[in-house]
Amino acid sequence: xxxxxxxxxxxxxxxxxxxxxxxxxxxxxxxxxxxxxxxxxxxxxxxxxxxxxxxxxxxxxxxxxxxxxxxxxxxxxxxxxxxxxxxxxxxxxxxxxxxxxxxxxxxxxxxxxxxxxxxxxxxxxxxxxxxxxxxxxxxxxxxxxxxxxxxxxxxxxxxxxxxxxxxxxxxxxxxxxxxxxxxxxxxxxxxxxxxxxxxxxxxxxxxxxxxxxxxxxxxxxxxxxxxxxxxxxxxxxxxxxxxxxxxxxxxxxxxxxxxxxxxxxxxxxxxxxxxxxxxxxxxxxxxxxxxxxxxxxxxxxxxxxxxxxxxxxxxxxxxxxxxxxxxxxxxxxxxxxxxxxxxxxxxxxxxxxxxxxxxxxxxxxxxxxxxxxxxxxxxxxxxxxxxxxxxx
Length: 392
Prior knowledge:
32 strands; disordered N terminus; six-stranded antiparallel sheet; disordered C terminus
């Protein structure tokens, strides 16, 4: 029989940013004992897309589309990813773009100007391909900057609390997200807009972004972000962008932009919160709740999907966070196989670890802290929000 005790904690370590801990005790049901080989055939590679912001004006304004690829065994994807759209341009070129994944990610800038293409306005679809995986994301191109529906992956656009009026024109700054999460690889795109009195864009205008919390980087999701201030120049649409990243601490980033020509400034506040809890949700075999697994090649419940949920301090789901899993046990026959070594939380904050049967042996599954937990007695409820235990 397989009994599962889950114990969750948060951890940042390189690209592996959140660790989930499972203490697994395996006492298999009857069946012939088989040699445990490295079989990951049950896993699938994944390609996830996100757009930031999910809605932009159809005037040449850009949305950053980021691809995140993971392999069948849960490691960070490598190789080339391609992007295709029907309307608009990618990275200032045509309707196609491609690039090499860095830390499993690659980003493109998608713009659509209705002055150049009548089919721009409305919700458009971008398709990305990597190896045998394909994914899509939707971006809404609006008239006059009205915010539309960005699809399932949409993140709300937050307007700045202040703007700088400049000789009849205006300087504004917006954030692609109302809040960020620390230690999970999150980021937000800061967009500065410089406009003429009649609302037209001011191109080639020098501006400087600055933040009092977190770091700034160029507008690529793969950039680490090292600066507290960063110069930029507006494009033909009158906009300039940088990426805000966290440094592992919780607080509020006050991001400002200053226009070099006249000193006008604008500012937006972005709270950076903790991804508070990672909790056990369920264990299923073949889509059905289970507490028993058969040994490898027994034909009975040989695969279990263990689901966790990542939430913030208000119990709201934390999406698009990279979660890692590690299988730990003595070497040799009997170690069950961890098909997925990492996963990305969905919009509900859920992530799934897939375990395949081995022969009878007690083992542990642990996260990034580097120590096996084994079986542990239940803690007093609420004693540690980052260590939750649950018996199935």
